[in-house]
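In the design runs reported in the main text, the only information available to the sequence generator was the tokenized backbone. The following block is the verbatim input for one such run; it is reproduced so that readers can re-run the procedure and compare outputs position by position.
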């Protein structure tokens, strides 16, 4: 057996400088938070003078997303884990995830003691339904798609596949809050949609998340799982109920929900602004003849970033360095396929048994998902932030044109 060191490629870390809703925080969020502090009731289910911000935030999210059920949770990872647990996914199960994106998606699967199976991506930087089809086995219990950087995955084909095999599709919409696919909000087409409200995301509470669900049974299970396995009556918990099962604490705090209500209101304007800016940027870069990321449904794009491909990795890194020195917020983004992070090759978990891998034939090897490895190294990402205006978009476009003229 060859040692991993021989085939593994180096992965260069970069600190994300891409803030969206966070840039819009002002007195409005501060006042909502102060209101909660003055009520001395920061826990969502009871307190001396409960204001019910989390209940309100959930109702407002449901209205905005046009979702049947929304559960607020403590992070995007908690949202994924809660969705997987609510669907009963665990040991022995395989969950298909995209080979490109943030590691949290696969982590949540392993945290449920299920095994992530990677499907390759295409030039949309999102999961390739054709490759998903080849990865489905009798053990596949869910498919998770990620709407990477605000661009919808091919939901129609993915839903056909999932429905055809009787397995749920979970949308990881952590980077795509408010985006749409054929007019419907991302996160509401699959069995569950998971959102993150972490600091880099469109709706920013520092930490936070939500799960949107279609089925009321699934919603009940999610609510139980995220709240130590209890059911509540008038805010008070009981475990004296046959619906109860072992859970964790992924509850949202009233402080977070207070910020969330304001951020949600602002997200409408934010998304409108980002979309206009990105459309112009995309138009400009397209006019230069650059090889742009494919966007299946441009109308629903959140507009958080543009991405184009160049011919090799070294040139890509050079271009990014030159853009940065021209004050353009360019980034290689994830820079590798998800499974190129060491713990996948080593199948390493906290417990020495190596569960869930101990009972699975699934392994991870360099070259498994060639498009993800290649596109991760050839893509230049240009984030769009709410501090930009059309003049800034023109300045960025000119910088790109000037630099790309030498390649
Ligand atoms: C941010 C993110 C997550 C995790 O969200 P946290 O709130 O940081 O736990 C999951 N999936 C994707 C695609 C993300 O971008």
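Verbatim output:
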């Amino acid at each position: 057996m060859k040692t991993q060191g021989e085939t593994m490629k180096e992965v260069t870390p970069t600190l994300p400088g891409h803030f969206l809703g966070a840039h819009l925080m002002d007195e409005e969020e501060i006042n909502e938070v102060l209101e909660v502090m003055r009520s001395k009731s920061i826990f969502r289910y009871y307190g001396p003078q409960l204001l019910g911000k989390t209940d309100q935030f959930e109702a407002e999210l449901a209205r905005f997303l046009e979702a049947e059920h929304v559960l607020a949770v403590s992070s995007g990872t908690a949202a994924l884990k809660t969705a997987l647990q609510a669907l009963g996914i665990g040991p022995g199960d395989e969950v298909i995830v995209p080979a490109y994106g943030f590691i949290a998606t696969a982590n949540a699967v392993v945290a449920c003691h299920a095994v992530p199976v990677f499907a390759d991506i295409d030039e949309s930087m999102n999961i390739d339904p054709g490759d998903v089809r080849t990865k489905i086995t009798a053990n596949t219990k869910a498919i998770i798609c990620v709407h990477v950087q605000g661009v919808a995955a091919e939901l129609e084909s993915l839903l056909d596949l999932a429905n055809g095999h009787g397995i749920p599709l979970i949308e990881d919409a952590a980077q795509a809050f408010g985006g749409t696919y054929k007019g419907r909000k991302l996160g509401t087409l699959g069995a569950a949609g998971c959102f993150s409200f972490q600091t880099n995301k469109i709706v920013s509470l520092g930490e936070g998340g939500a799960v949107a669900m279609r089925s009321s049974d699934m919603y009940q299970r999610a609510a139980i799982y995220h709240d130590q396995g209890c059911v509540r009556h008038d805010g008070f918990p009981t475990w004296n109920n046959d619906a109860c099962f072992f859970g964790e604490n992924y509850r949202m705090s009233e402080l977070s929900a207070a910020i969330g209500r304001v951020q949600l209101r602002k997200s409408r304007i934010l998304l409108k602004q980002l979309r206009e800016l990105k459309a112009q940027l995309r138009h400009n870069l397209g006019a230069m003849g650059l090889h742009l990321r494919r966007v299946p449904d441009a109308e629903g794009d959140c507009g958080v970033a543009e991405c184009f491909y160049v011919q090799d990795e070294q040139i890509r890194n050079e271009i990014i360095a030159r853009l940065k020195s021209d004050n353009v917020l360019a980034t290689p983004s994830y820079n590798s396929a998800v499974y190129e992070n060491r713990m996948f090759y080593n199948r390493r978990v906290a417990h020495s048994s190596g569960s869930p891998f101990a009972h699975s034939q699934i392994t991870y090897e360099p070259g498994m998902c060639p498009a993800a490895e290649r596109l991760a190294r050839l893509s230049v990402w240009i984030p769009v932030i709410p501090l930009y205006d059309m003049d800034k978009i023109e300045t960025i476009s000119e910088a790109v044109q000037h630099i790309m003229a030498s390649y």
